[in-house]
């Protein structure tokens, strides 16, 4: 704590006497300033103990009263008048004016030099700064040890609350409360949902201070609350809130900043690790979609913690062509991961860049936390759409992916936020998209293939339909057609040449499938 007027007065070596303002001696002294000016306020910042011999103050009550008012208005915490030079004693009008304004007035005896008072205050300020630095280092070491422990984030929140003598709460990236300490503060932390939501919509890092008390909290539970977003790349990974009885001190601010840094590092993790995990999840998802579920299970068991168990759905998110969906898709992926982690639900995610922009593919439990989080997230982002497959076994994820792609196409063309495969079932595709538009689209896209089939050998349309229905599995599609797989590969190369488009592109395969299906309606 900084020195106060009371601590200065208690120093017996100074022999100071309080003549006015005795009820305000607990004010902190930020500096000692000596001035003989009639108006020293242009050179003050507030918080000073001002010392003067009163050479230019004059002796009239009006001048002395005006002098006191100037000092009080400037935030001076106390006035010390040295007697024995221009004044043998402190003028009574000065005492009366100080008492009226509640400004502590100290009598400084002639044997006490002003420099002695300055040294006492300077020593106390230096001691305060040393204590602040020492306390900050100790707190940082304590919080770091906590962060490196088994329950890192929980331990950091608990230690922070104890250090501040108040409460602390951690929220995940979606704003859901995940850790609170002590336990009794859960009610207070839960009432900050609106403030956390406001920060969630701002780039990280950002903060908000709620002066007086937290919103919705009874007057008897007044707090000074600080809410801080946690994130290093403008996207909030979580939020930290602390509540204390009084405004936090500079030392406590250092402690809070140390906790914010440690929690940010914990939530962000290393960039290399995050990239490796994302690549692993994307590779596993592509293996599952390709029908290599057994191999994916073996890999995931040792490196990824397993695959989703039970009935799943494939979800594909994207935006209309030309829309900037990068940030929205990133937030959708974050929301899905956070929802899954809260309940221990496994999730596979992959991101692709196609001819029509970015796509985010997710494989999650049917009607699980991830599924629900994705449906909620797309409702918050204008222009972002979601295609959802029918429930399926993990072994049928390839079929589910095709369903989700078709559902996404319907959502994008119809300007809808989400579409389930059930809505795109047999006989319902044309009403959803508009029969005339679909027919024109299909005829234009497939015309080169149909022209080829009328004039040359090789049924390219039938071969393309078989290959797409088998999700690119060469042997199965060739068997359906009764041809060798090399023959089918040759035909697919001719399809690419005639269309001028790559069949490796998911968007191209989706559009071709829609065009083929429209001809069956």
Describe the protein's topology.
Blueprint: H1 5-9, E1 17-20, E2 31-34, E3 48-52, H2 61-73, E4 78-82, H3 92-101, E5 105-108, H4 114-147, H5 152-164, E6 167-172, E7 177-181, H6 186-190, H7 193-200, E8 207-210, E9 224-230, E10 238-244, H8 250-268, H9 271-289, H10 293-303, E11 312-319, H11 326-343, E12 348-354, E13 357-365, H12 369-378, E14 384-388, H13 397-414, E15 418-420, H14 429-433, H15 435-455, H16 460-469, H17 474-481, H18 485-499, H19 506-518
Parallel strand pairs: 2-3, 3-4, 4-5, 14-15
Antiparallel strand pairs: 1-5, 6-7, 6-10, 8-9, 9-10, 11-13, 11-14, 12-13
Helix pairs in contact: 2-3, 4-5, 4-8, 5-8, 9-10, 11-12, 13-19, 15-19, 16-17, 16-18, 17-18
Can you describe this structure?
- The chain has 521 residues and is α/β, with parallel strands linked by helices.
- The protein is 49% helix and 16% strand.
- The protein is built from 19 helices and 15 strands.
- The strands form three sheets. The chain has a five-stranded mixed β-sheet.
- A hairpin with a 2-residue loop joins β12 and β13.
- The protein is elongated, with a radius of gyration of 36 Å.
- About 3% of the residues have low confidence.
